[in-house]
Structure formats: C-alpha cells, structure tokens
Amino acid sequence: MTQSSDIGGLLGGISLLEDGSTAAPAAWQDWLNAIKQASCENCDIRLNLMP
C-alpha cells in the first residue's frame, strides 16, 4: 500500500542461500533478536479494546 521496499529489503536480507547462510548475516541476527523479544513466556499479549 505504501509502495515501500522496506519489507522486500528485510525478506531479501534474511533469505537463505544455497549453502545455508543468509544473504545478510547482520539482518538475520536482528531478526532472531526481534523474535526473541517478541516471544516472552511471561508477557501478556492480549489486546484489550476500549469503547
């Protein structure tokens, strides 16, 4: 919708190459850190909508 190439850059950077490595190792590490932060066992991720 925004015609932004940001998501393309992200997906391109974390895509796997034939040898099993990633196109951008730093982007892969950033991705893993983001997943780790988002998957907290004790986090309350409920979304409460207020009228």
Write up what this structure looks like:
It is a single chain. By secondary structure, this protein is mainly α. The protein is built from two helices and no strands. It has helices at residues 6-14, 25-38. The longest helix has 14 residues, at 25-38. The protein is flat. The model has no long low-confidence stretch (mean pLDDT 79).
Overall mean pLDDT score? 79
The geometry reads as: flat
CA-CA gap between termini: 28 Å
Report strand %: under 5%
SSE succession: HH
Helix content: 40-55%
Task: List the SSEs and their pairings.
Layout: H1 6-14, H2 25-38
Question: What attributes does this structure have?
Answer:
single chain; 51 residues; 45% helix
In short:
This protein has helices at residues 6-14, 25-38. It is mainly α.
